[in-house]
Amino acid sequence: MTEQILQEIAKLEQDNNIKIVYAVESGSRAWGFASTNSDWDVRFIYVHTLDWYLSVEEKKDNIETILPNDIDLAGWELRKALLLFRKSNPPLLEWLRSPIVYKETLSTAAQLREAAAEYFNPKSCLYHYFNMARRNYEAYFKEDEVRLKKYFYILRPLLACCWIERTGDMPPMEFDILLNTEILDVQLKHEINELLQLKMSGEELDKGARIPIIDEFMENRFEHFAQYLKDFNFKNEPGYARLNSIFMATLEDAWK
What predicted TM-score, i.e. pTM, was given to this entire model? Predict the structure, then answer.
């Protein structure tokens, strides 16, 4: 599949007259709990030719397409990506930490990783993960029987909150790292691992009875972080100089 993804990336470049400087897997395959039928969620950063930027008109700054072969392609133009990076955008920060990299040319991604500590805002990322977990919980956990795979779409962002609280740093994408560092209760970890093995073995994980020990952990964390965020203060307003430098260097290197 990697070769097919690279072919689709090359086709996007040709069809749109762009250069993709960074492309990664961002969904459940990068998180480490993909099923056999999971989609391929490819995310990328791209640049246009120089003349595209020499215009006052508003232009589209993203590309999205879903292909018949279960490849979901979505990317941001570099300037958009840099502005989101300045705001400590969690999805973008995750892309930069993805364990599955399809393409990385130039030094753009490496420079952003080096700048991450300067631009990382733990408060905005905590809100992002907390709200993601809460939305999924409210959407899928209203009955005594639930779609069991949705546990992971609540646990992962909650564990990301735990990581940020503990380290003050951006959490890793891989679910197993979060599980093994943030869950200390042996029985709780065992129950989550049992569910994880079922999902990864190709089980559909349709509806089933709720798992009390996991429910208790999630509800405890919801209560904790709702209060924690009320009292959490953080100010970070990094400038544009470093991002301007990355932007100009990328354009120069891409089209020289």
Answer: 0.93
